[in-house]
């Protein structure tokens, strides 16, 4: 079991560029989440999904989009990158709601 | 939405001493309270969790207490070791909304 994998590990974007952060889990979890973590802060939920084809907004969804076409994959799309999106992004998954979330290693994104 | 506050932001203890980290939450419907440990450069990892029908839970040197009336819960680490040094996050969620709200984190430093 690889758990939750994320690619890339690091990325530098110019303002206005777009990119997709990839997330894959091999635990057959229904629930998947995207968080951002700003320096010295906790994690804030961007989007989450309760199963293939079902997604919903979290606390800070503006500037991001997600899709969930399979149980395993939950990519996060950044359109028109802005400096405010400089952060570390974590993907997580859980078997059920209110159960342990398993986190990936994170993607460090810098927008300049 | 839920508001989770965590204190202190940094905590320095001598090896062998105890460490206590406290969190408060605002939504009385919250019923699941996990604690995560994040080591440098890694994603958070669950160390212990408690549900609202339980007042205390213990796992070796780690314990969590919950006071639903006062809406606060605490993490207790006894006999601290240098490998306990990390950032610890509390979180709260309800079973209705599939959303986790994280505290801002406590950086624990255990001095040998």
Key terms for this structure?
heterodimer, A: 112 residues, seven-stranded mixed β-sheet, B: mainly beta, five-stranded antiparallel β-sheet, 11 strands, globular
Task: Describe the structure concisely.
Chain A is mostly beta strands and 112 residues long. Chain A has strands at residues 4-7, 10-13, 19-25, 31-37, 43-51, 54-57, 64-66, 76-78, 87-94, 102-103, 107-111. Chain B has strands at residues 4-7, 10-14, 19-25, 32-38, 45-51, 56-59, 62-67, 72-77, 86-93, 100-102, 106-111.
Number of helices of chain B: 0
* Beginning-to-end CA distance, first to last residue of chain A: 36 Å
Fraction of helical residues of chain A: under 10%
C-alpha termini separation of chain B:
41 Å
Radius of gyration of chain B (CA) equals: 13 Å
Category from helices, strands and their pairing of chain A? mainly beta
Order of helices and strands of chain A: EEEEEEEEEEE
Summarize the structure in words.
The complex is a heterodimer of chains A (112) and B (112). Chain A has 112 residues and is mainly beta. Chain A has strands at residues 4-7, 10-13, 19-25, 31-37, 43-51, 54-57, 64-66, 76-78, 87-94, 102-103, 107-111. Chain A is globular, with a radius of gyration of 13 Å. Helix content of chain A is 0%, strand content 50%. Chain A is built from no helices and eleven strands. With 112 residues, chain B is mainly β. Chain B contains no helices and eleven strands. Chain B has strands spanning 4-7, 10-14, 19-25, 32-38, 45-51, 56-59, 62-67, 72-77, 86-93, 100-102, 106-111. In chain B, the strands form two sheets. In chain B, strands 2, 4, 5, 9, 10 and 11 form a six-stranded mixed β-sheet that branches. Chain B has a five-stranded antiparallel β-sheet with strand order 1-3-8-7-6, with no helix packed on it. The radius of gyration of chain B is 13 Å and the shape is globular. Chain B starts with a strand and ends with a strand. The interface between A and B is medium-sized, with 25 and 27 residues.
């Amino acid at each position: 079991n690889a758990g939750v994998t994320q690619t890339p590990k690091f990325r530098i974007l110019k303002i206005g560029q777009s990119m997709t952060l990839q997330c894959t889990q091999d635990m057959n979890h229904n629930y998947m989440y995207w968080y951002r973590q700003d320096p010295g802060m906790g994690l804030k939920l961007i989007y989450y999904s309760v199963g293939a084809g079902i997604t919903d907004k979290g606390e800070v969804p503006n500037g991001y989009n997600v899709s969930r076409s399979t149980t395993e994959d939950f990519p996060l799309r950044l359109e028109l990158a802005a400096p405010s999106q400089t952060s570390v992004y974590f993907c997580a998954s859980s078997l059920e709601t209110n159960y342990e979330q398993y986190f990936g290693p994170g993607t460090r994104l810098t927008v300049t | 939405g839920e508001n989770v506050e965590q204190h202190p932001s940094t905590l320095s203890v001598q090896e062998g001493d105890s460490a206590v980290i406290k969190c408060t939450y605002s939504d009385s419907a919250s019923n699941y309270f996990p604690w995560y440990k994040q080591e440098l450069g890694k994603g958070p990892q669950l160390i212990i969790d408690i549900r609202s029908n339980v007042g205390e839970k213990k796992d070796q040197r780690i314990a969590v207490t919950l006071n639903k009336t006062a809406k606060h819960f605490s993490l207790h680490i006894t006999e601290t070791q240098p490998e306990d040094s990390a950032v610890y996050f509390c979180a709260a969620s309800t079973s209705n909304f599939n959303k986790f709200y994280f505290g801002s984190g406590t950086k624990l430093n255990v001095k040998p």
